[in-house]
Design goal:
7 helices; two-stranded antiparallel sheet; about 240 residues; about 20% strand; alpha/beta
Length: about 240
């Protein structure tokens, strides 16, 4: 599979497998699919197309690969990443098997997608994968990242995240540097021209300006009045002597 064409779900090198064209796309989605960074973050506002971007990227992975798709909880997984992938693959006619009880999907090209929730990150320890997608990653604990990338023991060894930001958290810290293996693509809700015209106006009417910057503009913001970060504080079993 070639990862270059961003207007296709798959670009398989054998005539026995179909080429699936994907015409509904935004500029940030195209930038995300075109990035060759090993670790990518698609951060966007509500309805900006971040889950669809992650799902399309999953379907562009090479023949013979196994991938993990992880969401914060099973309900979020079922209603978000899993539902999006199942709809796209059913429409394309590339599903060879779907084991709902095991939450494993098999596709043409001997490709396998395993769906998991992050309720218990330790359940990821035994998996061997070639690629990884963490959807709504800002709602997961920071330890999900080292535990999940430790599963990348096969080729192509790539991972991507999609999320609406939740302050300047561990996701922000992870991608705020200039490491060549990391890339951030940001998308505003307004970048998705396929949304209903009233969607953004409704959000604007119901949100504070700070909330709008986070939930619609997809910006990492610190809550107004937040003087302390949780990681600055230390919990002890015993109150220090003389403390009030």
């Amino acid at each position: 599979m070639s990862l270059a064409p961003v207007n296709q779900l798959t670009s398989l090198s054998t005539s026995a497998l179909p080429t699936i064209r994907h015409s509904s796309q935004t500029s940030p989605q195209r930038a995300f699919w075109a990035s060759d960074a090993r670790f990518r973050l698609f951060v966007g506002g509500r309805g900006s197309g971040k889950t669809r971007a992650g799902a399309v990227e999953a379907l562009r992975q090479p023949k013979g690969t196994t991938g993990l798709v992880v969401a914060p909880t099973y309900p979020m997984l079922r209603l978000g990443a899993m539902e999006t992938i199942l709809k796209l693959t059913a429409k394309a006619g590339i599903v060879t098997a779907w084991n709902k009880s095991e939450m494993e999907l098999r596709l043409l090209g001997d490709r396998r997608i395993i769906f998991r929730s992050a309720d218990n990150p330790d359940r990821l320890r035994g998996a061997n994968a070639g690629w990884l997608w963490l959807d709504e990653v800002a709602m997961m604990d920071a330890d999900i990242w080292p535990l999940s990338i430790a599963t990348l023991r096969e080729a192509p060894g790539r991972a991507w995240m999609s999320t609406t930001p939740r302050g300047k958290d561990w996701v922000y810290e992870l991608f705020s540097g200039n490491h060549k293996d990391y890339a951030t693509i940001r998308s505003k809700t307004t970048d998705n021209t396929f949304l209903d015209d009233t969607f953004v106006s409704t959000l604007k009417q119901s949100m504070t300006s700070e909330m709008y910057r986070q939930e619609v503009d997809g910006e990492f913001t610190d809550p107004i009045g937040a003087l302390f970060r949780r990681e600055w504080l230390r919990v002890t079993d015993v109150r220090p002597h003389g403390a009030k």
